[in-house]
Amino acid sequence: MTDEEVKVSVIVPVYNTEEYLPTCLDSIVGQTLREIQIICVDDGSTDASLDILNSYASRDRRVLVLRQRNQFAGMARNLGMDYAVGKYLVFWDSDDFFDPTALEKMYLRSEEDHADICVCGGSRCYESEGFEVETDAFLFPQRVPRQLPFNRFTNADRLLSFTTVMIWNKIYRRSFIQEHSLRFKPARNANDVYFSAAALCLADRITVVPEHLVTYRVGRANSLVATLDKNPLAPFEAWTAFYNDYHELPGFPARSYANKVMGVIRHSFRNVSNWDSYAACFSYLREGGLVGLAIEEREEGYYVDWIDEFLAHLTRDSAHDFLAYLSFSGYRALERETARKNRDRLESRRAREREIAAVKGSCAYRIGRVLTAPVRVAKRLVRTKAS
């Protein structure tokens, strides 16, 4: 396969994910779109990840393994981009896994709509609880305009909220990324925020595949969310850098940006796990961080429903009083999260039951039951005699 024949370059940063890496790579090499380049960048792993990568590269010529000292996922993605030759780029994580038709469907939709970016939906895999369920959290269908493709002018109020800024449910036209010199930030956390938000704002043509094609693992101990305490200000710094560079862009989606950032602030407070990290976030925001993010109280209706109350407490309460407010609102959120997980479990069980019912209702299953009936009868007779 020549460079010109490569349709998609898949870039995968890898750091100590030996437990999940084979599942991830199997789902990539097994894609129905065959004309792909698979660039795996080992970010200084200390487990068997590199050996696993080399094993796959020895069996599949499409797999290219690169190495760097530990510089985090953003720099690994940048290195991968330097070697990419595909018409499109996709950035997948080494602990996730993917529908076998994901690249084909996103590639074809991108070609059909001449898109700069194509976004798909995803599923959650609850690592500690052992079940998987589809979710709208990564692509909100109700926030996608009917007319595709769209951009910051035609979907201004929802440009940064119709999808997550996580990088792995999007495919990008490589020439678009090169035209705007987009690169990932060299940070442990939130290194994809700037890249993803900037791309969404700069794109002239954004399209979607409203199918759940990516499965994201939730609850991994070494995930970036789980390590937020090591750099709790990273999300705020990333969004501040994005705002500083793009707020003067014609058509900048100011309202969508403000609502998105408030969601990031709430998410950060919910995910830090000690007082020092909490206090660092609180002090940063109160001592100029909110101003740097261009967040201020607005007229009624500018923000989504929960933000006005949240922002009033953040700007007026003491650190201890705000923590008490968060604890109460967090309890309510926990109740909602528990209810959502219960719904997810129920839907997952129902989906399995539907699959079983479909199999049992199939012609092949009924024929199989007929053919194996003598064997089952014989087994029952043997058990009867033995008893």
Automatic annotation (TrEMBL):
Transmembrane segments: none annotated. The keyword Transferase applies. Residues 9-179 form the Glycosyltransferase 2-like domain. It holds the Pfam family Glycos_transf_2. The keyword Transferase applies. GO terms for molecular function: hexosyltransferase activity. It comes from the Bacteria. Keywords: Transferase. InterPro entries: Glyco_trans_2-like, Nucleotide-diphossugar_trans. PANTHER family: GLYCOSYLTRANSFERASE, UDP-GLCNAC:BETAGAL BETA-1,3-N-ACETYLGLUCOSAMINYLTRANSFERASE-LIKE PROTEIN 1. This is Glycosyltransferase. It comes from Adlercreutzia muris.
